[in-house]
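Task card 7
Instruction: Convert sequence to structure tokens.
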Amino acid sequence: MAVILIVLMISSFVWSRWLAKSILAHCRQNLPFSFSGAFPIVVALFCVVLLVILNLSLEQTLSQALVGGLWSIEAAVLLGIFTWLSLWTGQSRSDSQTITEQDLAASEHLSVIAYSDRTVLISPNPRSNQPSQFNSMLLFGMGLFFWTMLDLPTGILEIAVIACSGSGLVGISTWQIQLQPEQQIMALKFTGLWDLQATYTINLRHFPRLQIVKLSEGDLTWVQLSGQSNELALPGAIIDNSTKKTEDHSELAQILLKTCRLARHETSRDSLGLIGLLLPQGTGILAGVTFSIAAVLMLLLLPLPNNIVAEGTALLIGTSMLCPALAKRIFKLVAPTVMPSDPPIVLPHFHAWEIGTAIILSVITSSHHQKLGLIALSAAWISFGIGVCILALVRRTPINIKV
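Output:
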């Protein structure tokens, strides 16, 4: 077994060179990482083999050795990606000039690409955006690693697992804005796993003005598209963290004013004047925090099942696929003024939430003991996932405001 494991780890290290090359290409073009080729098949095989090992009636020592071997293979892949990327970036850095302060300052600005048809693509800079993407991918995998490998007290382990998985789930996301000045169209796209991705198409003919709205009681600032009868507040995720503010307004506002020829308007309002914006954001934040706190209390107070590594692994996967869709529906209920996303161009045969629901129900119904504990664990993990996803949606969804 040790010889087989070493051979597999070396093979994984070599195979990671292909994966690192794909990552480098996507980072340079500032594109969301696309899982193409053999990568989804390898990930699916990893999950299937893990579930098979956990469901086999093996001795505890042998089962732990096999599971540890699987994680050693994944560690070899991650180590290989780190090695190849370090070699390539180090070589290109030695061939080029030393990074200057101007290069570091440029990394804080947005990436703006203008095409021949006058279409403009705006996105966060890869140097500031991509590291958080891959950190979130590692967090998402660490939740499964903690569940299968760590031996923590009941309740604490479940909280640590869903906290890592939930943070990684909402963190694997980036955004792009596509401007079409001739048609006066702005398409705002958010990427994400399963139902966390969204596209919002905005007709700028209905919003001829760009407003920089400041809260008179504090330092908060919003960027809004203003029309005759309503206003549209742009998501905070693209305003606060991904733009570098100048002395008068944000960098994104400058690009929109210059490209789409919008009229600029600055105003200061009190909290009552911003009630149409603060109310949906506040209710969304309150709902997200409430679901998260309720989940933690359930994990600490309810009787949870013991020795369900295999069942818990399947529940964690099913919960991650189900929660984004539930969070979207609950967020629309508590904040009905949020802008609905565009319908998908191609409808899949099976939605992610359908597969996640089937996994959860199959685990609960097939278990001959500790059903109440499995139901409690599922409810707590779903509640925490909904809360985290709602908090992410608050910062990624435009809000309609009636004037």
